[in-house]
Amino acid sequence: MAEKAKVAIFISGRGSNMAALLYASLLSDSAFEVVLVAANDPEAEGLALAEAEGVSTFALSHKGMVRSDHDAAMEKAARDAGADYIVLAGYMRILTDEFATRWEGRMLNIHPSLLPKYPGLDTHQRAIDAGDSHGGVSVHLVTPELDAGEVLGQVKVAIRQGETADSLAERVRFAEHQLYPRVVSEYVGRENDPEFLLGKVRELALALPQCHERESHGSPGWRAGSEKSGKYFAYFNDQHHGSEHVAVLVKTGSMDELLDLVEAQPQAYFKPAYYGASGWIGVILNRPGLDWDHVAGWLERSWRSVAPKSATKLMDAADQF
């Protein structure tokens, strides 16, 4: 069974969305587990619920603190808990740009409107005042710009005749509790989806100069140089030859380097069957917290080992700008 992604949830109050996420995480098919519930209010009701369910908690009031210092303390708590992702669930704090940037692609938020409509506060009343037929809820990635990140999922909720902001909010909350756990599980579960991982590797590999894709022994591979005489620098490995890993195979500098890496970081590397004897190493992709910049670095290094000098010179020239 694939390892579940570790999620820290930030709250400010009763934590109804946190509770929906926590109980969804206990289902056998959930792609995530909750490793921390953290609050900017030590009296937040949701903390007691999390503690009752055996989840670690952290609380620190933001009052009297510089925003960046409070963010740093919350972030440290998440990192200390081993979180791969941070999920904001009624966390009523605007994060510093630096915090949001550090967790780009790994921090999610839920917002009670059909974004990009009505970012910020008073969303239900604004939808009613505008004469909209529907309000709703959006789950999106967090970016430095408020409520502007990529929308990952939405649910529409009809606005009825005589609707008030409170009555609409009550029904939107039901939709929130259905949507948020599903979107979080689907999003963090991509790290175990071979098609998603292949797409990411393909994008990185084909961005390199004079690179083309060619199948090898039933698996995608990437070659540097011409279509006729190019040399392979990477292969995609989807649990081949009895391996449990989804990986990209790349060239190392020596067998000693390969063995040292596998011994020191078995969670990140393995020696693949057949290819390993020739100095190829498997960079494991289906693991939480994968650093795609690290994967890109391996692809470029392997590409440089076989690419024509004209191509590497082109890359070096581009790097100077």
Automatic annotation (TrEMBL):
<dbReference type="InterPro" id="IPR038056">
    <property type="entry name" value="YjbR-like_sf"/>
</dbReference>
<feature type="active site" description="Proton donor">
    <location>
        <position position="111"/>
    </location>
</feature>
<dbReference type="InterPro" id="IPR036477">
    <property type="entry name" value="Formyl_transf_N_sf"/>
</dbReference>
<dbReference type="InterPro" id="IPR002376">
    <property type="entry name" value="Formyl_transf_N"/>
</dbReference>
<comment type="similarity">
    <text>Belongs to the GART family.</text>
</comment>
<feature type="site" description="Raises pKa of active site His">
    <location>
        <position position="147"/>
    </location>
</feature>
<dbReference type="InterPro" id="IPR004607">
    <property type="entry name" value="GART"/>
</dbReference>
<keyword id="KW-0658">Purine biosynthesis</keyword>
<comment type="function">
    <text>Catalyzes the transfer of a formyl group from 10-formyltetrahydrofolate to 5-phospho-ribosyl-glycinamide (GAR), producing 5-phospho-ribosyl-N-formylglycinamide (FGAR) and tetrahydrofolate.</text>
</comment>
<dbReference type="Pfam" id="PF00551">
    <property type="entry name" value="Formyl_trans_N"/>
</dbReference>
<keyword id="KW-0808">Transferase</keyword>
<feature type="domain" description="Formyl transferase N-terminal">
    <location>
        <begin position="6"/>
        <end position="184"/>
    </location>
</feature>
<dbReference type="GO" id="GO:0005829">
    <property type="term" value="C:cytosol"/>
</dbReference>
<dbReference type="GO" id="GO:0006189">
    <property type="term" value="P:'de novo' IMP biosynthetic process"/>
</dbReference>
<feature type="binding site">
    <location>
        <begin position="15"/>
        <end position="17"/>
    </location>
    <ligand>
        <name>N(1)-(5-phospho-beta-D-ribosyl)glycinamide</name>
    </ligand>
</feature>
<comment type="pathway">
    <text>Purine metabolism; IMP biosynthesis via de novo pathway; N(2)-formyl-N(1)-(5-phospho-D-ribosyl)glycinamide from N(1)-(5-phospho-D-ribosyl)glycinamide (10-formyl THF route): step 1/1.</text>
</comment>
<dbReference type="GO" id="GO:0004644">
    <property type="term" value="F:phosphoribosylglycinamide formyltransferase activity"/>
</dbReference>
<feature type="binding site">
    <location>
        <position position="109"/>
    </location>
    <ligand>
        <name>(6R)-10-formyltetrahydrofolate</name>
    </ligand>
</feature>
<protein>
    <recommendedName>
        <fullName>Phosphoribosylglycinamide formyltransferase</fullName>
        <ecNumber>2.1.2.2</ecNumber>
    </recommendedName>
</protein>
<feature type="binding site">
    <location>
        <begin position="92"/>
        <end position="95"/>
    </location>
    <ligand>
        <name>(6R)-10-formyltetrahydrofolate</name>
    </ligand>
</feature>
<dbReference type="InterPro" id="IPR058532">
    <property type="entry name" value="YjbR/MT2646/Rv2570-like"/>
</dbReference>
<feature type="binding site">
    <location>
        <position position="67"/>
    </location>
    <ligand>
        <name>(6R)-10-formyltetrahydrofolate</name>
    </ligand>
</feature>
<dbReference type="Pfam" id="PF04237">
    <property type="entry name" value="YjbR"/>
</dbReference>
